[in-house]
Amino acid sequence: MNASVTLSTARRVLGQLRHDRRTAAMVLIMPAVLMVLLRYVFDSQRQFERIAPALLGILAFLVMFMVTSVATLRERTGGTLERLMTTPAGRFDLLSGYAIAFSLLAVAQVALAVGVSLTWLGLEITGSTVMVFVVAALDAVLGTALGLFVSAFARTEFQAMQFMPVVVLPQALVCGLFTPREDMNQVLTWFSDAMPLSYAVDAMNKVTRSSEFTQSLWVSLAVIVGSLFVSLVLGAATLRRRTP
Amino acid sequence: MVAVKVSQLRVVRGGREVLHGIDCSLPEGTITGLIGPSGQGKSTLMRSIMGVQIVKSGEVTVLGRPAGHPELRHRIGYAPQSPALYGDLTVTENLRYFASVLQAPRSAIDRAIRELSLEDCRHQVAASLSGGQRSRASLAIAFLGDPELLVLDEPTVGLDPVLRHDLWGIFHQLAESGTTLVVSSHVMDEANRCQRLLLLRDGNILADDTPEGLRQRTGAEDLEQAFLSLIQERQAHHNRPSQRQGPSQQGLVQS
């Protein structure tokens, strides 16, 4: 590991976002805007409060997944990755650089969406605000890690976009957003149990509804962090020095 | 001293063998030109030397180490055929990033910008550069770490004649100070500026000689003619004993 490569990679990725203002603005603002939209779609504080925590988690995950998978794909196809592979930069240095940069972005994004929800939209939470931020940020970082990994399986940006419906939407359907996970038929419950986004949403629901650290909350958090590291390691395995 | 030694190198890409067991060795402090039309294996050979190409068999030794050895990563510089730059960063930001990865000093950035005449566009984002500016910026990155071996894939495409002349001046200076350069090109007048030429055709080395040696051997006036007669000689040799093997050139395959 080489910390200076990691840090300069993080700085470089953030620099790219600074030049690409449109993407940066959309990533930062869209989840907050969607929360506002959702609030008025329901036009009922009660219904909004039921679904808002889950959606905060999903949006953070989704947006970071998309941005990261396209950004990494560009690195792979643009020749810069190959160039880096001829230098002393290690793949974990690069991945951690990416993860740090996108996590910072994710934290800013989550802060905005949660902030808007708690103030303007009057979302009332009984749990700790800090934990809501922490879990939403973890969800976003999970999206980043998964995006890093799946970008290895896309050759073009079109294909990378398709991972949205392929990887994210099924998870979003079974994560408990539309119907409680335990009410689904057995096969779908198993499927849901195997998907990291389910735990991301569970954790959001729990921290907004109670400040208690229950065992099931710890399990959810452990699954999120675990999947995050597994994705990062798998992502690193797909960064090859030698290619065909 | 030999900087690069390639023996019996075979490479398969996309199910097709693109290098058929080639041998060559490049002496230290020289400029070797890899000459040949596109799709003949030039870039593949360069990627093999850089250690980023999966090879089927054979050996590539670079500066006394097997190609791709971690220790080499500080000692070699590479400019791939398509300028590998971050399009949304400025030239300076691109250079700064690669300098920090290579642990090159700040002064290396200014020197590279000066040597490649990038002063006017140093604060422009790479995506907005002209083709020539982009390939110069890509070259600048290869120069950053003061490498002992420079592998440059078609570095002068799209450059105006004055810049091209200047660039070859820099290549010669570097070679005189001991740097080994491998430069690919499909322009024959550039072949004249190399100390050694490797002519690649259909994944084989057709000639490995000095420009002067090639002209003498073929009795041709210029290198274009020399290469033509070599190719004809080889084809005549091939067609006579064996049955026809069909068209050997498969057009569209890019290197």
UniProtKB/TrEMBL annotation, chain A:
Keywords, sorted A to Z: Antibiotic resistance, Cell membrane, Membrane, Transmembrane, Transmembrane helix, Transport
Primary location class: membrane
Membrane topology category: Multi-pass membrane protein
One of the record's GO cellular component terms: ATP-binding cassette (ABC) transporter complex
InterPro entries per UniProt: ABC-2_transporter_component, ABC2_TM, ABC2_TM_bact-type, ABC_2_transport
Similarity-based family: Belongs to the ABC-2 integral membrane protein family.
Protein's name in the database: Transport permease protein
From TrEMBL, chain B:
Protein keywords: ATP-binding, Nucleotide-binding
Pfam families: ABC_tran
Listed PROSITE patterns: ABC_TRANSPORTER_1 (PS00211), ABC_TRANSPORTER_2 (PS50893)
Residue ranges of domain ABC transporter in the record: 4-227
Skewed-composition ranges (Polar residues): 242-255
InterPro entries tied to this protein: AAA+_ATPase (IPR003593), ABC_transporter-like_ATP-bd (IPR003439), ABC_transporter-like_CS (IPR017871), P-loop_NTPase (IPR027417)
Region (Disordered) location: 235-255
Signal peptide: none
Protein name (record): Multidrug ABC transporter ATP-binding protein
Lineage start: Bacteria, Bacillati, Actinomycetota, Actinomycetes, Kitasatosporales
A GO MF label: ATP hydrolysis activity
Superkingdom of the organism of origin: Bacteria
